[in-house]
Amino acid sequence: MSTLDLEQPGYELRFESLIDPERACAFPCDARGQVDMDELGEQALRHYLYARAVIGKEFRRPAVRRTAGAQALACA
């Protein structure tokens, strides 16, 4: 997988909470929803792996969304 350029319009893989509608996690990905885990920082990688592990328990299935430009990793 190639390195993601976060300055260009791109995509994010978004995990929305089943419990709290205000909570979601989003990670940069390609158009197919593939996240380059090697490009994530240590904390972001932990959040990403956790979100994947609790799909159906804490988070909904992730959705790929187009972003307008530079994006920040978020798990709020």
**Class by helix and strand content?**
alpha+beta
Low-confidence stretches: 1-6
As laid out across the biggest beta sheet, the strand order is 3-1-2-4
* Proportion of helical residues: 10-25%
Q: What is Rg?
A: 12 Å
User: Order of helices and strands, N to C?
Assistant: EEHEE
Number of helices: 1
Number of strands: 4
What characteristic shape results from the CA principal axes? globular
Main sheet? 4 strands, antiparallel
Strand content: 25-35%
Distance between the termini: 27 Å
Describe this structure as you would to a colleague.
The chain has a domain at 29-69. It is built from one helix and four strands, in the order E-E-H-E-E. It has one helix spanning 42-53; strands at 10-16, 24-29, 63-67, 74-75. The longest helix is centred in the middle third of the chain and has 12 residues, at 42-53. The chain is globular, with a radius of gyration of 12 Å.
